Amino acid sequence: MFYDRAKIEIKAGRGGNGCVSFRREKYVPKGGPDGGDGGDGGDVIIEASLRLRDLMYFQRQRHFRAGNGGHGQGANKQGRRGDDQVVQVPLGTQIIDDNGELLADLTADGQRFFVAHGGGGGRGNARFATSTRRAPRFSELGLAGEELTVSLELKLLADAGLLGFPNAGKSSLLRVISHAKPKVADYPFTTVAPMLGTVEEPDQRNQFTVADIPGLLEGASSGVGLGDEFLVHLERTRLLIHLVDATGYYGKDPLDNFAIINRELAGFSPEIAAKWQLVVVNKVDLVGEEEAARLVDLLSAEIISRCRTHDPAFAWLLEDAEGDPDEVDGSRAVIRISAATGAGTKNLTRRVYGLLKRAWLREPAVITAEPEGHMTYRPGADDHWEVVQQEGRYRVAGQLVERLVARTDFENEEAVAFLQERLEHLGVSDALRQAGASPGEDVVIGEMEFELW
């Protein structure tokens, strides 16, 4: 079974606590503070890897957690940084948050996205020593790491995509032209999941990838036969190889089938419908030379008609005709093959590669740049805060003050006194009083609630 969606829960590591320690050496009386800082928590990183093909692993593993930072120690020893958690996903995976916002689109091998950042380590008491505070007996707590739930959605990365009605011979063609070994049988819906294959030119110097998606039905754009879930895998392709069954499907004329599939593409996504198309008439060995030639003529005439209305799927033919629809040779967009016997398949791969080279020159692949890193908090980096009144209580909201509170050990009186000094210095106490708060009233900062002093 092919898995192209998953939801995972991730949690970055907590930072280690700072250490309260004083230098103790023989013949060194009243040694100063030497408590080291806690180590930062590890990050959770999602990395694209060529080794993976789908998101099956995440059906049994949904929780990922990075390592916590080590606590600081005496002699100014800093705690160990927590281990990062690297989560590997296939190329083409999109990372989406709970609000539906796209966070990252991983399209290159080794490309990384820092999805959750570890909490910063707390400072040891050596960092709080001043000329007036020579023996601080407090340190900071480490901060919690980021925690969130994200959705993973895979959209296959392929140069060309095979599409058509069920039993048109897409899997048979992929088996003939590539190293892929999809299931092949003489009944519809043999293919139930998208599959990738790599095609090599005879000289083995040129390669391209082809995606085979399950057969589409009329109404696929609105979800019939799960068509809407399969069509998304054509979004990243440069070329569509449209297979038309020369024998027809369920008694319908091959030309009607060609028109139906194109309507479904347009109904699902104008962008997919605008991709260049190459039409392949398959199973010509079953209908004879005369019928095969008739179908090629009919499809060629239909393609010329589409060029007159400037259908972008056949814009490459108009380019060859220098923009004049009357000069378009529709037969150049139609190839006859038999996937069963292999007839015409070498000519097909040459034509596909030729069109792909043109498409690559027109629109080079865009790879999302790897993030340079993530912002780490430093006091003053985001010093905006405000006082709001909620349900009879006063809340102070802002990154700076919330982190100050989160780092404070409220069981240590000296640490609480230092926090009060900082809040007074920032003007938080004055702002609370101006907002109407009186000593003894409840004040909330971050996840901590206490009385205004």
Secondary-structure blueprint of this entry?
Elements: E1 5-11, E2 44-49, E3 63-65, E4 85-90, E5 93-96, E6 102-106, E7 112-116, E8 147-154, E9 160-163, H1 170-177, E10 195-200, E11 207-212, H2 227-231, E12 239-245, H3 254-268, H4 270-273, E13 276-282, H5 289-308, H6 315-320, E14 334-336, H7 345-362, E15 386-390, E16 393-397, H8 399-406, H9 413-426, H10 428-434, E17 442-445, E18 448-451
Parallel strand pairs: 1-3, 2-4, 9-11, 9-12, 12-13, 13-14, 16-17
Antiparallel strand pairs: 1-8, 2-7, 5-6, 5-8, 10-11, 15-16, 17-18
Describe this structure in words.
The protein has ten helices and 18 strands. About 7% of the residues have low confidence. It is of the alpha/beta class and 453 residues long. Strands 10-11-9-12-13-14 form a six-stranded mixed sheet, sandwiched between helices. Strands 3-1-8-5-6 form a five-stranded mixed sheet, with no helix packed on it. Strands 15-16-17-18 form a four-stranded mixed sheet. A hairpin with a 2-residue loop joins strand 17 and strand 18.
